[in-house]
């Protein structure tokens, strides 16, 4: 992967994480780094769910660099926020 590809992953990860934090009600806290991690996790959650729904097999894949991929990543990030809040409540 080229340096441009890595920078693109980082920028899109931050954007996806920020969108998910803006959509999800309440305060999630954190800054740019947490938005980046949330965007990357969301990309894998969304891509994996899309693969599971379309093929019926469970494999860890990320969402692509297109509009559908970004939407899937945001949905995955929202799911990740929900799961994180549920787990952190119990601890």
Spell out the blueprint of helices and strands.
Blueprint lengths: L2 H21 L8 H24 L11 H24 L1
Helix pairs in contact: 1-2, 1-3, 2-3
Report on the structure:
The protein has helices spanning 3-23, 32-55, 67-90. The mean pLDDT is 84. It is an all-alpha fold and 91 residues long. The chain has a domain at 30-91. The chain is globular and about 35 Å long.
Keywords for this structure?
mainly alpha, 91 residues, 3 helices
Helical stretch tally: 3
- Low-confidence segments, given as residue ranges, are none
User: How is the main sheet built?
Assistant: none
Strand content: under 5%
Shape: globular
Distance between the termini: 39 Å
H/E element sequence = HHH
Radius of gyration, taken over Cα atoms and rounded to an integer in Å = 13 Å
Query: Structural class per helix/strand content?
Result: mainly alpha
- Let me know the average pLDDT: 84
| Number of extended strands | 0
């Amino acid at each position: 992967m080229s340096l441009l590809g890595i920078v693109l992953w980082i920028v899109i990860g931050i954007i996806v994480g920020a969108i998910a934090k803006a959509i999800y009600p309440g305060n999630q806290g954190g800054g740019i780094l947490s938005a980046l991690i949330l965007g990357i996790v969301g990309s894998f959650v969304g891509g994996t769910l899309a693969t599971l729904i379309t093929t019926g097999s469970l494999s860890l894949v990320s969402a692509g660099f297109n509009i559908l991929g970004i939407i899937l990543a945001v949905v995955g990030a929202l799911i990740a926020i929900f799961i994180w809040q549920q787990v952190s409540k119990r601890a």
